[in-house]
Amino acid sequence: MRILVTNDDGINAPGLAAAEAIAAELAGPRGEVWVVAPAFEQSGVAHCISYVQPTMLARLSERRYAAEGSPADCVLAAVWDVMGEARPDLVISGVNRGNNSGENALYSGTVGGAMEAALQGLPAVALSQYFGPAMTDMADPFQPARQHGARLIRRLLDHGDWTSDADFRLFYNINFPPVPADEVRGTRVVPQGRRRGVSFAVEPFLAPNGRRFLWVRGPRQDGPATPGSDVTANLDGYISLTPMRADLTCHASVEPLRQAMDG
């Protein structure tokens, strides 16, 4: 199996090493693990691509590259340049430092990398590690992802919907809960949720030179959320598994709106 690994935390991020370990276990001794990851942190860039500027690509070692671009750029670089005609059998994006449950998924470069892989017709998963107080003293905060990641992806490869002829191919968003690996209670297949009463915001900051800047401030990650969703599953100690696609249409609203507008 040939596996491509990317992320949004950057080529030197510890979560990338966790994803590489997961990929190596999946690929086996006869497989290949390729890494094309951002040269610098790209958190929060979602599915953006560097459409109006070129992406510099550097070969760091065999099958390992850094790109001055987004995770989606990295996938494009791998598929159309780095890996030649031998496309990957699986794309792993992550392991992200922090969760991409709920509304976080909409901002996530980790999810954006997996989405781009799916748009390229490739099987893809986004992996993220929820952080919380129970993990404060852990030597390796990515331990839950490391211990449970390969086993879960194997099951997903056997039982997931990997249909390649759909207009928008599915990809999978996986979030590991904020507890030690031996306290993970299992896996739940759940929809994306929303944390209630919170949102990203900005906080003004006055620099020493008198210029005014704005910092983006993230919301609390442990507040109440949609029941039965990825957020609640994670906070209850479960791995969340959410099938996603790039189609943003609210299909349930199409026909009622059509009838109303035609009337």
Describe this structure in words.
With 263 residues, the protein is α/β, with parallel strands linked by helices. The protein has one domain: Stationary-phase Survival Protein Sure Homolog, Chain: A, CATH 3.40.1210.10. The protein is built from seven helices and eleven strands. A nine-stranded mixed β-sheet has the order 3-4-2-1-5-6-7-11-8, with helices on both faces. Strands 9-10 form a two-stranded antiparallel ribbon. A hairpin with a 5-residue loop joins strand 9 and strand 10. It is globular, with a radius of gyration of 19 Å. It starts with a strand and ends with a helix. The mean pLDDT is 96. One of its GO terms (cellular component) is cytoplasm.
Keywords:
263 residues; alpha/beta; Stationary-phase Survival Protein Sure Homolog, Chain: A; nine-stranded mixed sheet; two-stranded antiparallel ribbon; 29% helix
Précis, in short:
The chain is of the alpha/beta class and 263 residues long. The chain contains 7 helices and 11 strands. It has one domain: 3-Layer(aba) Sandwich (Stationary-phase Survival Protein Sure Homolog, Chain: A).
List the topology elements.
Elements: E1 2-6, H1 14-27, E2 32-38, E3 57-61, E4 64-67, H2 71-82, E5 90-97, H3 104-107, H4 109-119, E6 124-129, H5 143-159, E7 171-176, E8 187-189, E9 201-206, E10 212-217, H6 230-235, E11 239-244, H7 251-262
Parallel strand pairs: 1-2, 1-5, 2-4, 5-6, 6-7, 8-11
Antiparallel strand pairs: 3-4, 7-11, 9-10
EC number: 3.1.3.5
Function: Nucleotidase that shows phosphatase activity on nucleoside 5'-monophosphates.
GO molecular function: 3'-nucleotidase activity; 5'-nucleotidase activity; exopolyphosphatase activity; metal ion binding; nucleotide binding
